[in-house]
Amino acid sequence: MALAGSVSLGKFFARNGPLQTAHSGYEYRPGQIEMATAVAEALEERRHLFIEAGTGTGKTLAYLLPVLQSGRRVLLSTGTRNLQEQLVTKDVPLLASALGQELTVICMKGRQNYACKQKIADFHSQPGLLERDEYDMLARIRTWAAETETGDQAELDFLPENHPLWQRLNARRETCTGQKCPLYDSCFLTSLHQRAAAADMVVVNHHLFFADLRLKGQDLAGVLPPYEAVVFDEAHELETIAGQYFGIGVSSHQIEDLARDASAHLKMLDLASPDMDARIEYVRLAAQKFFLCFGAREGRTVFEERPQFVQDHAEVYDQYMGSLAYLQSGLEAIHDKPEEVHNLMRRAGDLRQQTAYIVESEDEGVVYWVERRGRGVHLQASPIEVAALLRDQLFNRTDTVVMTSATLAVSGGFEYVRGRLGVEHARERVVASPFEYARQALLYLPRDLPEPNSAGYRERAVEEIADLLEASQGRAFVLCTSRVQMKLFHSAMAGRVKFPLLLQGESPRNLLLEKFRQTPGAVLFATSSFWQGVDVQGEQLSCVIIDRLPFAVPSDPLVAARMNALEAQGKNAFREFQVPEAVLALKQGFGRLIRSSRDRGVVALLDSRVLSKSYGRQFLDSLPDFALTRDIAEVREFFNVPATSLR
Fold it and tell me: What is the pTM of this model?
């Protein structure tokens, strides 16, 4: 890690300091210095740190400079790939410019984001394995692969997202032969790891971090370079993402991938035969019958009565498990097996073991569930709690973990998130937002609105939404806690208001967001994916309408299992789990509105429980200091106030 000279944190972030000189739009923020100092102390004293940094704090630069000055190898982990790109292309270059020195930053993503040179060469030499409409696409990818330095799919603006050809050309672990590959030395991943080892900063995302942590927990080689400390940005997502990687999953897509890869590799290696073709087809057919046993219901359901499932579907289950063993034995019989065949054998064996665990295991502390998404069926075994796993594999083995987000504290404290993540000792800090919420924003709670599950709620909510949109002249997000509610409100507004209406799902998220930014008076109806990580500054977003308090669905397998575990300990699961989780989610939704000191707008919460229920105070105490009204006339008056220097 390169040192950033002797510039002090106070001087760097001060008015007319190096940062303001490098960035003409920079605004002095005392909270930024407060946060940077806390991060520097944590790195120097080797302590864990929770730090909630309110919107507008400038938290990215507030941790980047102390990380650079620490002289330690610090891994930076973000919530999404988009945030990774922002760090690499915007924030680190700004820091380098302000410091007057060059900085090398490497962005590491999951293996599936990178092209495999060997696969590209293999398919080029055997075009008969491609669909006819994929020939030209392969030619363009091959030309690009010969010129690119990174092999990152993000550079391919001509390749549609989730194109099936990329799945056959990427460097996913299942099909990688590692150092035995003829092109290992020139591999994009080999180069990536070498550059990361020499970089001043390495930026990953939470999914890659926990995939690496799981590998190391199994005494396998990880994918990330050695590090001494970690900074997690968007740390409110850690429990959810960690739970995905500490669990075990099998999906119908994995079986399809195995069958397709087996067929393609054997043909490429000139090892195909009628016998192997029959074994591969048997896997496909047996897996189709097996996954049909889980019904056609969309979404997640608990995988209950697993012993009864085995009894009821014994023949189909045995055929499915036997088909994988049959494929394995056929591959085993191949003489002088190349590494690709060993990989296929390992994958078939792993899928058998993982399925057996999910279907037959009696481990406690695990919830077993099924999820159907479109044509795909996913079987999952997830730990009910990840605190002990994180404590053992992360917090006890890494002396400094900094966790930051705009939403970590509940009622001003970190007790809830500390317990969920298993952090026993950590410093805690809440850095207030520099925005003047009482002046810039208004919180509207309608009078006489029925509770969300009561008769008449939907009709009254529709009236309130229409009145709010007329007052704000569109320029709004309508954030809903369910897709059903989202579609109902969208349909109700279609003939009622004159503003352009956008609906989540009509186009990809990034395109939909850009359309909202570019369309005067637009109104976007959306669900959870737009509650966080969305930044729309300026008057285009002047109103955020939230339909109800975002309590997690109690029938969700993970939610139900966590609530049952707390109840078994004699705790009140609603107050100790559901309410804090909903508080953090609501804070994310509220955070969409005020994104700069010039923004101005209204947040409307269409849920009377925030005032009528005793737990409502916990929500209000956790929100920024908005001016509050229950009168729609005051909302209209708010929007009629001249914007002056505000929106």
Answer: 0.89
